[in-house]
Write a structure and sequence with these properties.
Blueprint (H helix, E strand, L loop, with lengths): L6 H8 L38 E5 L2 E4 H17 L7 H24 L6 H14 L4 H10 L4 H21 L8 H13 L7 E10 L6 H19 L4 H8 L14 E2 L5 H7 L11 E2 L3 E11 L7 E12 L7 H16 L5 H8 L10 E5 L6 H9 L9 E3 L2 E14 L2 H31 L2 E3 L5
Antiparallel strand pairs: 1-2, 1-11, 3-4, 3-6, 5-6, 7-8, 7-10, 9-10
Helix pairs in contact: 2-3, 3-6, 3-14, 4-6, 7-14
Length: 456
């Protein structure tokens, strides 16, 4: 597929996925901004090949030099990822085809009124600098050292952001996942035959049956195991039942056999627990060793979203630059707030109630408990670096300038509803490429495309 090679295609597909969330004016949109890392934006070296028009999209030409520059970027990107470089004679037409699609989509974005503000470009530059652990001044210096002007670099960012906004508007609404699809996926994963990828941690109560046991003795031992099973299903402490009933040697671990792939458990155990959820107790299992009472302690399925996440509890103060407050003044004001809070001369919540322009101001800037992906990436990245009680430096996002204080962190299990939403996001991502390709083909079909000389 062409998107394997062309960075715009990769970017476009990346923008199709992400958790849906909205509230506080700070939540991430359905397609969080993904920017090309610095290493992937290196400019192409000058070429001695003749320049000429290779294609026209509506009224805009694509030149041979444009194709060669993009071709070199793709080769650099593949090299950075340690992926093999395909035959350039075969890759060049694919790159041209993607340039045509890109041109048609950018034209559609401009013709339908989409624009990119200077503040959004500044934010994108700052995000790329942060990804590369440098500041914007150093980013500009490295670009110029590598032969690319800041103007060219910002033009590339402008087009990427414009593409992002177009995809958010045109493609995202077309990706639909019904409740029935979510429920069917959950049922399929619960009943699917375990693969070697699934990991299980089972706890057992073993009532051994001697080889020479008489039928009467076997019945008595089975009755003993059945009593343990019934009490386990009533919710009694399983470790205590292990100590009371089990003849196994794993009493100190509460009968737990350890987290391992399903293939490393006896087939009898896997079959008995296949359709069970964590915390469930299986029907009695008979093996050559005796009777087993099995409880599912952990069950990790790589095809299912994680059931536990690290949540953060933070608060913030948001200032929005405008005609009466410049960005520099907003940063200076928040820096002063940070000094006051850190030195114990002011209360963060009180400052938020008085100055913050966010809906959370009335609650002292409290954003509540958040799971990964709930905030825009630039906000979440800074928040995740804070220790409890720590206050960030002023931070620019698409919403304004923030001051963040992390209050606490915790490990939390996802509720059934949150797990369903995670599955929904997973299914949206699976559908995204097909929906994007269909839309891109439609945009291409509506554009006038004239192919001239093939690129050299």
């Amino acid at each position: 597929m062409l998107d394997r090679y062309f960075p715009f295609g990769l970017l476009a597909l990346a923008l199709l996925s992400g958790p849906a969330a909205n509230a506080q004016g700070l939540r991430a949109p359905d397609s969080p901004m993904t920017l090309t890392p610095l290493a992937a934006t290196a400019p192409a070296r000058s070429s001695n090949a003749a320049d000429f028009i290779v294609a026209v999209v509506n009224s805009e030409p694509i030149t041979n030099h444009e194709v060669r520059r993009q071709l070199e970027r793709v080769v650099q990107q593949l090299a950075a990822q340690r992926r093999p470089t395909p035959d350039l004679a075969l890759l060049a037409p694919q790159v041209l085809d993607d340039l045509i699609n890109q041109k048609a989509q950018l034209q559609l974005a401009r013709d339908t009124g989409l624009r990119v503000e200077d503040a959004a470009l500044d934010e994108a530059e700052a995000s790329i600098a942060l990804q590369n652990q440098i500041d914007v001044v150093e980013l500009h210096r490295r670009l110029e050292r590598d032969g690319q002007s800041v103007v060219q670099f910002r033009a590339q960012l402008h087009d990427q952001i414009l593409m992002q906004r177009l995809i958010e508007r045109e493609v995202q609404p077309r990706i639909r996942v019904s409740d029935a699809e979510v429920e069917q996926y959950l049922r399929d994963q619960q009943t699917a035959a375990p693969s070697g990828d699934i990991e299980l941690n089972l706890a057992q109560i073993l009532v051994t049956v001697p080889e020479a046991a008489t039928p009467t003795q076997v019945d008595a031992l089975k009755a003993r195991a059945q009593r343990a099973l019934e009490r386990a299903r009533k919710g009694e402490d399983f470790a205590a039942l292990v100590r009371e009933f089990s003849d196994a040697t794993d009493l100190s671990t509460g009968g737990q056999l350890g987290l391992r792939t399903a293939s490393r458990y006896p087939d009898l155990f896997v079959a008995a627990t296949q359709a069970l959820a964590v915390g469930d107790v299986a029907e009695l299992v008979r093996s050559a060793a005796g009777f087993h009472v099995l409880k599912v302690v952990e069950k990790i399925n790589p095809k299912m979203p994680t059931v536990a996440v690290t949540q953060s509890h933070a608060r913030h103060i948001l200032l929005i630059p405008g005609p009466t407050l410049s960005e520099a003044a907003a940063r200076e004001k928040l820096s002063e707030f940070k000094k006051l809070v850190v030195n114990g001369k002011a209360d963060f919540a009180a400052l938020a109630r008085e100055h913050s322009k966010d809906g959370s101001a009335a609650k002292g800037g409290d954003l509540g408990w958040s799971s990964p992906g709930m905030f825009v990436p630039e906000f979440e990245t800074v928040m995740n670096r804070l220790a409890p009680g720590e206050v960030s430096d002023p931070l620019l996002t698409r919403f304004g300038i923030h001051l963040i204080q992390l209050l606490e962190r915790r490990k939390a299990s996802l509720t059934p509803e949150q797990q369903r939403e995670a599955v929904r996001a997973m299914l949206r991502e699976k559908k995204s490429e097909q929906v994007y390709q269909t839309w891109a083909q439609d945009v291409r079909a509506r554009a006038y495309v004239e192919l001239r000389e093939p690129p050299l």
